[in-house]
User: Fold this.
Amino acid sequence: MSSVRVHRVVDGPAAGPVVVLSNSIGSDHRMWEPQVAPLAERGFRVVRYDTRGHGASPVPPGPYDLADLGGDVLGLLDDLDVDRAHFVGLSLGGMVGMWLGTQVPDRLVSLTLCCTSAQLGPPEMWAERARTVRAEGTAAVAEAGVGRWVTPAYAQAHPDRVAYLREMIEAQPDEGYAACCAAIERMDLTGDLAKISVPALVIAGAEDPSTPAEPHGRIIADGIPDARLEIVASAAHLGSYEQPDEFTRLILGQITEER
Assistant:
């Protein structure tokens, strides 16, 4: 496990309980914009960061694995002098959250795992996507990425927001994106879910083509003791952005209950 100092943005009261928001592959801390004000207004200190290889964070040579990405979060908490935090992760961010839950549960108050998977194959798909990005850049996968992130109805109703999300993918460093593909390619957390002892909520999008609730969300919720699964209607893979009110309501319910 290695650690880099990731870029972070902190909002809300300095003395509030800390909520760490972890982004998906191909995005950065901006994907959580809809959640910041509602969480901060409820008294939480909201910490968003860019996963290594994304946004303004360092881009060390790949491949990366979940231990590297989890180590970055531990370094972030140490930098901020935070002993324990609520952790909310979407897709790759949720995978990092599960790793943290199995390895360092004492650093977590709760887990909220959004639109994610404990094993997201086939591995060959991720290896091929990494090759494509290294050869052609993140722009080559941006259109397909947005197509998974939001439903067709949302894309038709909000072309400006879709363009914003497409540009977000295109802005990510090629090597960082490809190196994170390798982390997902080799990931299998299914056998470790029972080790997670912190309170956990799993949120899935009803129209998520990447990590559908059945089987991905169900496997996680059934595997973590006492976890529950919530399925949000009219939401694809970036459900926190497409259906922000419902995702925020569920997140607030989880972190307020475990406050």
Remarks:
- The domain at 8-257 is CATH 3.40.50.1820 (Rossmann fold).
- The chain has a mean pLDDT of 97.
